[in-house]
Amino acid sequence: MVPAETTRALLDGEAASISAWAARHGWIVQLDGLRLALAALVRHPTDNSLLVLLADLRGYRAIPPAWRFVDPLTGKSEPVAYPSPGPVSGGKASIFHPQPTICAPWNRLAYTSEGGVHGDWSDTSNWLNVAGDVVRAANVAEMLSAIDVHLSFSPGRQG
Q1: What is the share, in percent, of the chain residues with pLDDT greater than 70?
Q2: Which end of the chain is more exposed for a tag (fewer CB within 10 A), N or C?
Q3: Which of 17-21, 90-94, 106-110, 142-146 has the lowest mean pLDDT?
Q4: What is the pLDDT of residues 34-72, one digit of tens each?
Q5: How far apart are CA 86 and CA 92, in angstroms?
Q6: Rounded to the nearest 5°, which phi and psi values hold at 118?
Q7: In sequence order, which residues have a C-beta less than 8 Å from that of residue 31 and are 6 or more positions away?
Q8: Cα dihedral angle (105, 2, 35, 14), rounded to 10 degrees?
């Protein structure tokens, strides 16, 4: 595992871009360097429901963050907390998987080793090199941006 100090240093370098992205897009994002975690609040663009997105950033960049939506009332990661997949521009598949999970190489929860559906992506340490037609993001602000784009095509929440 990557030493926490290394991950903190990387996140310190990304903090300004994360904050700037959040301010431009109307998201409330809190980066907790001590716990190596991120919490984000945003309203679903279709039904205006509150979405709570959490990321476990331990081990980042050697492995991708573990992204999950949680129910704002219970704090549990369950289907009702996740946006429904919708058709994305150009006929691409949504990153919101009915499992539910964010299905992208930059979410370690999408890998079978972490309970996800993607055994075809090798292991989490190869997340920046996954081949094929996948949504790419190389830093936390890009990951938030990809989630935001796919959220704009979501018809509502699951469950």
Answers
A1: 100
A2: N
A3: 90-94
A4: 999 999 999 999 999 999 999 999 999 999 999 999 999
A5: 10
A6: -105, 85
A7: 11, 15, 18, 19, 37, 38, 140
A8: -60
Distance CA 28, CA 40 (A): 5
Q: Give me the residue label for tokens 């704090």.
A: 75
Question: Across the beta sheet with 66-70, what order do the strands follow?
Answer: 28-32, 37-43, 50-56, 66-70
Please state, in angstroms and rounded to a whole number, the distance separating the CA atoms of residues 47 and 90: 23
pLDDT at 85 (0 to 100):
94
pLDDT digits (tens, 9 = 90+) for 22-37: 999 999 999 999 999 9
Contacts 24+ apart (CB under 8 A), 31-37: 31/140, 33/8, 36/4, 36/7, 36/8, 36/11, 36/60
Whose tokens are 């360097």? That residue is: 33
Which token pair is 18? 């994360």
Q: How do the domains of the chain map onto residue ranges?
A: 4-151
Type of residue numbered 15: A
Within a 10 A sphere around the Cβ of 79, how many other Cβ atoms? 14
